[in-house]
Amino acid sequence: MKRLLTLAMAGAAVTIGLAACSDTVPNYSSLAPQKVTFIATLTGANEVPAVTTTGAGTAELIREDSTSILYTIVTTARTDSVTMVHIHAGPAGANGPIMLWFFPTDLARAPGNGSGFAANLNGTVRVSRITRSGAFFVAPYTWDSLMTRMGNGTAYINLHTRRNPGGELRGQVLPGR
User: Fold this and answer.
1) pLDDT (tens digit per residue) in 80-133
2) Contact predicate 130/107, CB 8 Å
3) Are 73 and 140 in contact (CB under 8 A)?
4) What is the pLDDT of residue 1?
């Protein structure tokens, strides 16, 4: 009986050893954080009240993981003298308070004449990251409130210019592709 038990244990050890040496690699991709993209189409018609402008733009925000968002804000038509860009709390058709500043900040100014303006811009306004711990949120807003509002479409990006200080381009942040 001892001999049979010893043979059974040896067989089990060989089976486990062979399984460990197989070429099959477990798929852990389901453990990786899923990136989520949000898009805002920036137009003067989206402003409240609407403004007439030849400017237009887009913003793409990619939530890379639970602590950072990569964002790009570009103008797709000439926009003159950008003075501020930020994200607000509020649904389409209504104005709301600022949640987070994109431009200007003390850490990064948009390209331009050094005065905080991005003059005669047709292209990239800002490419950067928002991080849970490093973002300049305006109280009472936080990372979690930003995530909630972006997810339910109650956040918008507003781009201000010298010509339209109340806002020239605006777009709701909506889940994208």
Assistant:
1) 788 889 999 999 999 999 999 887 754 444 344 334 445 455 567 777 888 888
2) no
3) no
4) 57
**Domain boundaries defined on the chain:** 29-175
For the record, the structure tokens of 77 come out as 């038509």
The helix (run of H) or strand (run of E) holding residue 68 is strand 68-77
Q: What is the domain class of 29-175 according to CATH?
A: mainly beta
Tell me what the mean pLDDT of segment 27-34 comes to. 55
pLDDT digits (tens, 9 = 90+) for 51-66: 999 889 999 999 988 8
Task: Return the structure tokens found at 154.
Answer: 């109650």
Task: Decide if 44 contacts 80 (C-beta within 8 A).
Answer: no
Q: With 0-12 CB in 10 A as exposed, 13-18 as middle and 19+ as buried, what is 85?
A: buried
User: CA 49, 143, 173, 104 torsion: positive or negative?
Assistant: positive
Higher pLDDT, 136 or 151: 151
**Residue 28 corresponds to which tokens in the numbers above?**
């852990």
Give the mean pLDDT of the chain: 78
**Nearest one of 37, 79, 80 to 59, comparing CA atoms:** 37
- With CA atoms as reference, report the closest residue to 138 among 93, 95, 87, 173: 87
If residue 2 lies in a helix (H) or strand (E), which one and from where to where? Answer: helix 2-20
And the tokens for 68?
A: 């950072």
